[in-house]
């Protein structure tokens, strides 16, 4: 499973990012969900009346401002990384009910998301290359990255002598903590990326960070350059969490063991709805309508099993040309089970 591989690959991030962000937290004020102009950022709005007939339900497209925020952060994710999980940390902090259940521990991402408790990161993405066991963690906050690292120096973090080095007008820091090395790079003043891998050397971690910056600068392919993925992202109602998958032939949602032949990409978003319910909206793309039709027949059987096994409120699926649209409605405490259905297995 993705979460198991991610946990094994990225244990170091819990130590590093916790020290960096918690040290800065001592001097930080609570983060308001505003941009640099003082205007409120777009936040997910509750989805009304979840139980209408899904076959004819009009599903809204992505809010343009939320789409810009998502694509900007994922521009730091190279194309070889799959999947990527994006979280709006500011929104989660503002919703007490969600913050109690949508935790890094519940999602298996606690090794990369200690910032949930610090109030310093507004948005974060966790993206793994499951072949090389490497990870990049783009993040955006209100603190300059150099200031965060300076504060963290008093908490046992060793920053490479000489400070940051330059790479195409970006800064990259080499960091060591308890024998683990990684690289942290700045895309701009408050947007950066942490990069490393299982057993990576300082030079190897730097190469990973450089690859992330190359993607950001448009010098190499990004995850969202995968054919069809931008269209999928733009045709789902973005929420406080988004999962982007480019290699989607093995999703636990389809549990018959035969995979999803012809699957070219998948995007899943999560929004609050009435009461204590969440709506997972998934859009899964195939090479042609025939493959989509075959998948929908299997999906109907699989979803019945998943609904019974996990006690979900509602699951539904429909075909839209080459795409399969899935809706899963769950109680908030069962959200981690629903997340797991959309993270590819190996």
Short description:
By secondary structure, the protein is an alpha+beta fold. It is 31% helix and 26% strand.
Please tell me about this protein's structure.
With 346 residues, the chain is an alpha+beta fold. Helix content is 31%, strand content 26%. It is built from 11 helices and 13 strands. It has helices spanning 2-9, 11-25, 64-74, 89-94, 96-101, 104-107, 145-152, 202-216, 229-234, 289-310, 335-341, and strands at 84-88, 121-129, 134-141, 158-159, 165-167, 170-177, 180-186, 191-197, 241-245, 263-272, 277-286, 314-320, 323-331. Mean pLDDT is 78; it is low at 1-40 and 110-118.
- How many structural domains does the protein architecture include? 2
What share of the residues lie within helices?
25-40%
Largest sheet: 13 strands, antiparallel
What is the CA-CA span between the terminal residues? 6 Å
Query: Low-confidence parts, pLDDT < 50 over ≥5 residues?
Result: 1-40, 110-118
Give the SSE string. HHHEHHHEEHEEEEEHHEEEHEEH
Could you give the topology of this structure?
Layout lengths: L1 H8 L1 H15 L38 H11 L9 E5 H6 L1 H6 L2 H4 L13 E9 L4 E8 L3 H8 L5 E2 L5 E3 L2 E8 L2 E7 L4 E7 L4 H15 L12 H6 L6 E5 L17 E10 L4 E10 L2 H22 L3 E7 L2 E9 L3 H7 L5
Antiparallel strand pairs: 1-2, 1-9, 2-3, 3-8, 4-6, 5-6, 6-7, 7-8, 9-10, 10-11, 11-13, 12-13
